[in-house]
Amino acid sequence: GRSVLYYPLVGLMIGVLLWLLDSVLGHSDAGLRAALLLVVWVLLTGGLHIDGLADSADAWLGGHGDRQRSLDILQDPRSGPAAVMLVTLVLLVKFAALAALLARGAWPALLIAPLLGRAAMLGLFLTTPYVREHGLGADSARHLPRRAARYVLALCVIAVVLVSGVHGALLLAAAIT
Q1: Alpha helical stretches, state H, the chain
Q2: Which of the 8 DSSP states describes residue 1?
Q3: The model's pTM
């Protein structure tokens, strides 16, 4: 459970690596930089979160409201059409967002986005019951030091606002909603 406390730090490390790569790429075309950064971002995480997104899409749409059917779909290693569609759309939007941010020189977003993504996971562990009673996620949620998790989330909020000011506060509001 304590490992979940480090998720935002892992996100920040990913952000630093993306920022360093962007610095190396210099002033090359924003679209090319966005594509390369997205590829590296996916590879750094091993596609784990994209796989989870694909599983969730299949289970949500294919489960038809039946909890057990949804859980069975989550165990299936194959991806259905809902998964393919959603992953394609998410990667397309992520690419477009990266290209737009890079074209404007908004490099702090490279640090903040992965940090917020993993901080959100920590927040979800604090506030959302896990789907399965047994399993890695359930054990992590059960053994998460809640007070320390709140402190880590507060540090994330402070870091985002310090790095990005008003824009960071807007990003936080968007992430919370």
Answers
A1: 7-25, 30-44, 48-62, 67-75, 81-103, 108-127, 136-142, 146-176
A2: -
A3: 0.85
